[in-house]
Structures are given as C-alpha cells and as structure tokens.
Amino acid sequence: MIKIGDKLPDATFMVMGKDGKIEKRLSDMTAGRKLVLFGVPGAFTPTCHHNHLPGYINSIDGLHALGVDEVAVVSVNDVYVMGAWAKASGGEGQVTFLADGNAEFVRACGLDMDMSAGGMGVRSSRFSMIVDDGVVTHLNLEDNPGVVEKSGATGIIEQLKGA
To answer: Where are the alpha helices (DSSP H) in 10-92?
Structure first.
C-alpha cells in the first residue's frame, strides 16, 4: 500500500469536459503543485454523496487559501457517472472528478477493496491524501467505508495548517 513519502504512480484518468470525455494525467496534475486527492467507494452512494464530497465542496475556498492548487475525487466509476455526479453535486468546476473505471490507479496504490459481497465489485477504499509535487505527505485511510472520520475535508484542513 502507498505510504507517506511515496511518489504516486502515474495514472491516466478520464474526466468529463465541456465537449465530452478527455484524459487527465496524474503526473500533470501534481508536477510542482499541491493536490488534495480523496477516494470514495462510489459516486452517488449515500456516504460519498451526502457526507464526503460535500465537505470538500464547502471547504474549497479554505483549501485553496491553504495552498492547495487542486482538489480531486477518484472513484471506480465510468466517466459518464462521474460527470453526472459533478453536475448533480454542485462540485463541477470546483473539484476534479476522476474516473478510475478499471480500478487501475487504486490497485496500483493498494487502495482497492473488494465489495463484491454487496454487489459493487472492486471499489476504491475511502481515503484522502495531500500530494506535494507527486509525493504523498499525508494519508488518511478509513477503517470502515461507510463513515467519514479520518478522510474528510476538516481533517485535511487541520493537516494543511500543521504542515
């Protein structure tokens, strides 16, 4: 599993742009920049949609004021679902919605989990991290995917203030 001090593996995500789907490389997002990246088990799922994502949307100005260049959410969903979630959540244009449709990124990081018993297949663990120039400086992994205790925006803001 990825840990503090590790460089993130490069990955190419799909994102929904104004004219359709486009590729977005993680290395471009992190080069010389500070990124807050958080992962959720699924777009539109109750905890992700009503608790985890809104915390980041509501804190976006504060995160930028603390030196964060970009906030992104990753989920093992297709680009169309992530695009719809961006619009429905009000996060479009504030948070970057990264589709990891084949779970390649979360697997490379060791942040995948098997939720097949619940009919959801392979999904992302619930996590958050601060990435500075491609290197993980803070990592928060939830023990239970149905709660947001360690990986929410409030915790990230406290970590940024202490960094």
So the answer is: 26-30, 46-47, 53-58, 60-65, 79-89
